[in-house]
Write a structure and sequence with these properties.
The chain is mostly helical. Helix content is about 55%, strand content about 0%. The longest helix is centred in the middle third of the chain and has 20 residues, at about 85-105. The protein is globular.
Length: about 150
């Protein structure tokens, strides 16, 4: 009996140290598995093969619910991979996230997996991504998005 519990403890310890991929972290966030995200919180900014964290990948994918869950769990919004995202993509993501958050708060679309808007928690409409780059492209983005000034 003693040897079984020692072997169980060894298994648990090795499972905690098992390699964790960015894709796994993204999956936890996408599916609202907040307990798994809490368990691996110290490794939430694990970098994938392309040099992205799960949060950066959520921005590329325009995946607002996943971004929300990662941000809520403390994923870095200043990781170097953010600097590789074009200003136009960040602008687009910020706009889309803002609209998504308003729709979630109004109940027009479901809250992110793992979150209950009924609990009185509103989704912040700001991404927290650097807006310094966005300010610099404001007029250019208006031309691209609006078709002209």
């Amino acid at each position: 009996m003693f040897s079984m519990s020692v072997s169980s403890m060894l298994w648990s310890t090795s499972a905690l140290a098992a390699p964790l991929t960015m894709s796994q972290i993204y999956g936890y966030a996408r599916h609202g598995d907040l307990s798994s995200l809490k368990r691996i919180k110290s490794r939430i900014d694990t970098i994938g093969r392309g040099g992205n964290t799960a949060l950066c990948q959520a921005v590329y994918n325009q995946d607002y619910g996943t971004y929300y869950n990662l941000k809520a769990m403390g994923a870095s919004r200043t990781h170097p991979c953010i600097n590789r995202i074009s200003q136009a993509q960040i602008y687009s993501f910020n706009q889309g996230y803002h609209d998504w958050a308003i729709a979630v708060n109004r109940g027009a679309i479901p809250a992110p997996a793992g979150m209950s808007v009924a609990s009185g928690t509103a989704v912040a409409t700001e991404t927290g991504l650097s807006t310094a780059a966005v300010v610099g492209i404001g007029v250019a983005a208006a031309v691209v998005v609006g078709g002209g000034i």
